[in-house]
């Protein structure tokens, strides 16, 4: 049995070695192969080291998910430099689908082990990034519903699309399914652009309400008390959602 010494194996180095060993098992053999005993053997460390450093197996899997999702989250962050926030959403959708199909083991680790009321930190960060992108759409007056609901709709549709495509043999997967789902989601949560004089006269109340809501979230105004800002946010959300539930009353 390998012996752990602090002088020969500093904690950060040992921690990374264990994560890499677990990641290797995950990618090569699947989640079922990632037992603490197997990881310890692959990393060349005693099994108790895993519990000392990560608390339990779930703690280890959290860090493996972070390791696997790091590249995806970095690529997603780069999309925020785009000028058109709705096109950024399209690009983000495509990146999400690509990552899920290219890295099914990591994707399944994050989205295939969901428990009620719990999602891994990597998954939560991915949702936060999507929420930020949708907030940019709202700030441009192009969002059809409140930010939280739009985020849930797009996230749920994206995860469902990846899982559906992953369940199919690679030779019969048709990415047109993803493209169709993407455009359905985009048309559901966003408003068409307004041009010229119509940008002011024809802007739906929903779009204006959500744009103001996004502006408040970016920086609270001192003209309103905290209670007034909370109430205003609630009113703006209700304006947006009421029009959406009535069948887009502005249209």
Characterise this structure.
32% of the residues are buried. The N and C termini lie far apart (71 Å). Helices cover 69% and strands 0% of the residues. It has helices at residues 11-29, 36-43, 47-54, 57-78, 85-102, 104-111, 121-139, 147-166, 176-189, 198-201, 205-218, 226-245. The model is unreliable at 1-8, 197-202 and 246-251 (pLDDT under 50). The longest helix is centred in the first third of the chain and has 22 residues, at 57-78. It is an all-alpha fold and 251 residues long.
Quick take:
Helix content is 69%, strand content 0%. By secondary structure, the chain is mainly alpha-helical. The chain is globular, with a radius of gyration of 22 Å.
Mean pLDDT: 83
Structural Rg: 22 Å
Low-confidence blocks of residues: 1-8, 197-202, 246-251
Taken in chain order, the helices and strands follow as HHHHHHHHHHHH
* Secondary structure category: mainly alpha
> Globular, elongated, flat, extended or rod-shaped: what is the shape?
globular
Straight-line distance between termini: 71 Å
Relative strand content: under 5%
Distinct helical segment count: 12
Strand tally is 0
* Helix share bin: 55-70%
Major beta sheet summary: none
Any descriptors?
251 residues; mainly alpha; globular
Give the topology.
Blueprint: H1 11-29, H2 36-43, H3 47-54, H4 57-78, H5 85-102, H6 104-111, H7 121-139, H8 147-166, H9 176-189, H10 198-201, H11 205-218, H12 226-245
Helix pairs in contact: 1-2, 1-4, 3-4, 4-6, 4-7, 5-6, 5-7, 5-8, 5-9, 7-8, 7-11, 8-9, 11-12
